[in-house]
Amino acid sequence: MRKPLFLLSLALSLVVSSAMAQTIPCYTDEMHRAAIKEKPYLADAEKRMNENIKRSIAAMDFSSMRRTTAASGWDTIHVPVVVHIVHSYGGVDYLTDNQIYNLIKRMNDNYNLFYDTTQIVQPFRKYLVRARIYFHLATKDPLGNPTTGITRDFSYLTYGGDDQGKINQWSPTNYYNIWFENVIGKGNSIGTILAYAQFPSSDYDAPGYSGVICAAPYIDDGSTLEHESGHYLSLYHTWNDNGRQCAQTPLECGNDEVDDTPPTPGHFSTCGAAQLRDTFCNTNHFKIYPDITGADSLADYPDTANTQNMMDYSSCTYSNFTKGQVIRMRATLQSSVGSRDSLSTPYNLAITGALNRNRDLSPIPDYYVTNGATTMQYFTCPGTALRFTNKSWRDTVTKVEWTFSNGASTPTNTMTGTAPNGVSYNTYVSNSFTDSGWVKVTVKATGNNTTPTTTEFKNVYVASPTATPAADLLQEFTEISEAKGNWPLFNYYNNDFKWEYAFKGYLDGHCLRYRGYEYRALTFEPCPKGTPYGDYDDFFTEPIDLTGYSGGICYLDFFSSGASRTSISTDIRDTLEISYSKDKAKSWTKLTNIAKGSLCNKGVSTTAYEPTSPSDWIPQSIKLPDTLRNNYVVFRFRYKPNVVAPPSDATKYWSKKSTGNNFYIDRMTFSRFPAGVNEVVAAQNAPVVVAPNPTQGDALVVLKNGFTGNAKITVTDITGKTVFTASADISAANASITIPQSAIAVKGIYMVHTSTGSFTNTQKLVVN
């Protein structure tokens, strides 16, 4: 399989074993072995597949293997194809329609010898044969709607989602599914993976993964997809590794169940004279076939390895399939294993529209939003500009018309051009807004000789131009706050992991929930969606005025409740990241992360977690820096499930699944006291309150009723020994003095003595 030049030059500069550590063009064998290790019965399915293929070949006249003339009498086989582009909008994974059309043309050229066959070394020219297998982009989707046979899905899974990134699959009994993602995550510790396929026998257990997935940056590398399509049609690597790598030292000879591809150790990257005349595994390579007349026939095959074969790893410019490989692929397309026999039936070709041409469809309006650079952002404040980049697609888009609500600085815009899949890669509208709320963005896209398509979006939110005084805010996440919608929730990837309002709150039943429970088991299952690795979801506060706390302590307080699906600390990977902006959402600064036990206070729950009483909740208090005493501050709460990248070992399927569970947040406020202390202070009529009590950390001595002057506290242990003293000048209505955890580190009972002027007070403090 031909590789890109920069990878080739690297491989040529290294010895074979070193090169193998740098680039693995195809990861099919590794995935196949991992699946069989996980489920050994798949080996039986593979055995049945090979027996089925042999029977099909025998029915096709097995003796024809010895004949070298082109099988011009073969019927043409047509295969419907759908290509799924899993992308991040602005990256190299956003392939154009024209790239896909050129790819399908190249595949058909390589499968049907539309290239210079004189470049194949002489011993194998007589084994060249047209496969008469043609791949066609479908023109009807599974619901019978017109399509170009190309889908696009914006997803974090483009970055190493692999099997989980095989989203939006169309029925594998009707379509050959091909996916492209930004990077193949498997094997990152051993090198760059270009693609991998699933053999028909694996479809027996995991039809949801059926097809091929490729790394988008290598779409034009030469023959990657042709190679993987060979695997999809039951071809092994020419060395049929049986558990070993290509060109592994010491060299071992392998066989691929095909007679006219001689045994070989395989070739990695290089395509010089030595590789083209490699006879390491062959001396007098021949096969005796029973003739249909009853006489035996001898086929004297080349003793030279077929280095230019499509199923080798060589970097040869011209790569071929032999006649034996073509017979095996055609037999696979007549086999029930993996339902490959249903693809090319007249009925399936009709319902998929594989033989029709239907590219001139109305374009699909689309765009993405950034903060003016490359960071995606759909939340803004009045006067702060966002960049709306056009990504309307489907063949050639000639015009895009925009309209924006909410007092947009550019309420309408028209773009014209002839670039494919959008007016141009970086054509955008810059817009700021004056009115708060969800922005209605209308995009009308027109293509060549097609009907314009208009789509309305409401995925951009503008915050209020005025801020709420922090002392007046108590967010209980009720139906009223949900209806008001001034704390916007963003589910960027439109999946099941998201923020949502729930009726499981701390006091009044209402709260906000991050739905993080993974409904699949922690072991491998054939389910092509759901992993949250790389996902994130945000909610934003309304703008807050914090100037009322100038010159004093201020806490961001709330209550939370959460659980995990595992007790193994290293596997608890969810994180709540809290950030703030004091420049109207132009930039963000991380305030803190909440993770591990602070996030999953209720330990392990193997079912979807729900709090059932106030005791299930814990207070969270974040002391705000003095620099945040601004009159307009916005806070962002970003939940990131499974923040640690999974290992590259393909056998550890579970590592890419969530170990998290549901997380709840409620009763958010700003205060001079940590969360939980507010409730104690309000509930007690005493002039001095010690809280929290009991405590496991710091404690506060709160002086109520407007004490003024100097206050002094003395803390003694149960023996009367003084462990801490402090004094402070009191001026606020509710002032406090902190007893640090370090002073009361020993569990037990302490006495807290408070005096100010003629007033004295003594209270008991429990540390547990």
| CATH fold label of the largest domain | Collagenase (Catalytic Domain)
Annotated CATH architecture of the largest domain: 3-Layer(aba) Sandwich
Kindly provide the name of the CATH class of the largest domain.
Alpha Beta
What is the global morphology? Answer: elongated
What is the H level of CATH, i.e. the homologous superfamily of the largest domain? Collagenase (Catalytic Domain)
Helix/strand-derived class?
alpha+beta
Number of strands: 39
The proportion of strand residues reads 25-35%
Poorly predicted spans: 1-21, 65-70, 522-529, 647-655
Note the gap between the termini.
66 Å
> What is the C-alpha radius of gyration, as a whole number of Å?
33 Å
Mean pLDDT: 85
How large is the count of helical segments? 13
Structural domains: how many: 4
Q: Mind summarizing the main beta sheet?
A: 7 strands, mixed
Helix content: 10-25%
Give a verbal description of the structure.
- With about 775 residues, the protein is an alpha+beta fold.
- The protein folds into four domains: about 5-15 and about 25-240 and about 320-350, 3-Layer(aba) Sandwich (Collagenase (Catalytic Domain)); about 365-460, Immunoglobulin-like (Sandwich); about 470-670, Sandwich (Jelly Rolls); about 685-765, Immunoglobulin-like (Sandwich).
- Helix 4 packs across helix 9.
- The two termini are about 65 Å apart.
